[in-house]
Here is the input.
Amino acid sequence: MTKKRVLFISSEMTPFLKVSSVGELARMLPQAIQEKDNEIRVLMPRFGCINERRNRLHEVVRLSGINITIDDNDNPLTIKVASLPEAKMQVYFLDNEDFFHRKFVYTDENNAFYGDNDERTIFFCKGALETVKKLGWQPDIIHCQGWMTSLIPLYLKTIYKDEPVFRLAKVVYSVFENQFDENMGKEFGRKASLNAIDNKQVSSLANATCSDLYMSGITHADALVKASNEIDPEVTKFIKKQKGKLVIEHSENEDNIDAYIDLYDTLLQRQN
Here is the structure.
């Protein structure tokens, strides 16, 4: 085993935020991988319900100042950071006032799915990759967890494929249970293309459901993790069709870290 650089991208992470089963795994896994003598970075959104003062978030000025363009609208990206002293681990937060400064996460006070969750997802996925570019930190493995990271495998295989910082990275995608019943709207595929991706590659994203997002991530990832025992049967069937892709089966055993290490090592031994 050689020391690896592993980038974790997740929509939530305890103790900062837990809305679903993503939060616990997103907290446990990076620390466990780091304790195996690997170098890690963690990125997540700075949702409004994350208390900045209590969690001691502060802006990383050298990383801020990026604009993420969606539908010809420039959306400023601010990067903040907090530390988990007990884990000796830093977490980077992607912030934007319009997209994230709300009391709730994915739904409003009436439990209605936010109408701009499509653009929030695009902003987070592109913003995460732009942040890593600005960091100048070249990951060996990019591990995306949950539906809100589902565009990242697509972007890495299309508009970011020639970026030096990502050129050698392998993409792992963790799939969970479905976490919403709504869809992302008919314009989601067009917006997600960022005017740079062939329409055929994003056609399945029009009116995308949670399952559709998972299947997009699955399609473009190099390896997969079944991170729940309640994955939609349609998604499970789709995973079985992915010939040649490495898959970690769901396990309730939190000490299953060696399976992840083996997965990363095997991926990195494969030719690009």
